[in-house]
Structures are given as structure tokens and as C-alpha cells.
Amino acid sequence: MAFYEHVFVARPDISPQQVEALVEDITKIIETENGKVGKSEYWGLRNLAYPINKVRKGHYSLLNINAPAAAIQELDRRLRINDDVMRHMTIRVEELSEEPSPIIARKDRDDRRRKD
């Protein structure tokens, strides 16, 4: 099995709870195909780099996946069908990091500065 980092952007008009349900669905797809989802992070509602169909914001999420290639192909197929997902990208990596992503680390650092 290989290691993957998967990031997706969901429509801004759905709630964070619906994004969490989408993450659970992705986890079920991966586990059905004999894979595992390690760390999952919700990055929140963020501005997009460029508008997609006149939409300027989206819910970002990151998942670390340990799965065979067939599981990733099935995940890609299902996310292309899903109307709630605007964009998604899966990248194969050498190893999975258990540390917080730079997005979460920066957010935590900014929160600490505001408290001081």
C-alpha cells in the first residue's frame, strides 16, 4: 500500500457538520477498499486563490491515507460525482506526517499571539 495526502474543497454554502459527514464518507470508501485514513484536518472556510463558478470561498480539509491505488481511484470517481466537492487533489508521498499541517500550525501560532 502507498501513502497519500488528499485535500478537497467543499462548497461554502454547506455547514461544517456536512463537511465532517463528507470526511466520514471518504473514510468509509477508503476502508471498504482495505485502506486506512490516518490524520484528518478541517482547515475551515477559506478564500480560494481564484473564483470557481463565481464562488470565492470553500471548506478545506486534509486527509492522510494509507491505501492501495484502487481505493484512490474509487475515491476520485466518487468525488467527481459529488456536487458538494468543488475541487480535490490526491498526492502520493513517501511517508505520512503526524505533525499538524502548516495551515493548522500557523493558525495555532496566530491564536497564541492574539491571547498575549
TrEMBL record:
Designated name of the protein: Small ribosomal subunit protein bS6
Organism classification: Bacteria, Pseudomonadati, Pseudomonadota, Alphaproteobacteria, Hyphomonadales
Species this protein is from: Ponticaulis profundi
Pfam families: Ribosomal_S6
PROSITE patterns: RIBOSOMAL_S6 (PS01048)
Entry keywords, A to Z: Ribonucleoprotein, Ribosomal protein, RNA-binding, rRNA-binding
Family: Belongs to the bacterial ribosomal protein bS6 family.
InterPro entries: Ribosomal_bS6, Ribosomal_bS6_CS, Ribosomal_bS6_sf, Ribosomal_S6_plastid/chlpt, Transl_elong_EF1B/ribsomal_bS6
GO CC term, one of those recorded: ribosome
Purpose: Binds together with bS18 to 16S ribosomal RNA.
Domain of life: Bacteria
